[in-house]
Amino acid sequence: MGAGIVTGLLAGLFGIGGGAVVVPVLFEVFRILGVPEAVRMQLCIGTSMAIIVPTAVRSYQTHRAKGLVIPGVLRSWTLPAVAGVAVGSVTAAFAPPGVFELAFVVIAGIIAAKFLAGREDWVLTHRLPGRPAMTAWGFVIGLASSLMGISGGPLGRWC
Hints:
Blueprint: H1 2-14, H2 19-32, H3 37-65, H4 71-94, H5 97-117, H6 131-148, H7 153-156
Helix pairs in contact: 1-2, 2-3, 3-5, 4-6
């Protein structure tokens, strides 16, 4: 319950997703419960993803109702993001837990560095990149999200 409160506060205050908080908390909870290390990280990510699906749908509906969804971006990211999630899922079936731990640390570190050092006026351009770059970024968002157990929000804001 405490982790849920912290997750909600951080998500509301800083715009980070709950997965960035929930996955490490679940990792420790599952360790205390004696979940074997060989499956602990996969279980954490799977649990986080199960929570993300309904909240992401609700978030999309709310943003769409306010006119904050760009249909062209949604179209260009949908299939590549699904492909990225598929690659991440296949990776989950065969990769050792260390792959997920490393992915979590690296991706969370990059996101944290952007939050700590970035400013709103630090932008490369005020236009979206072309179709190949948008397609590639959609794939990266899906892959990173599935390996880390987060939604694509923190990564999607960079485009």
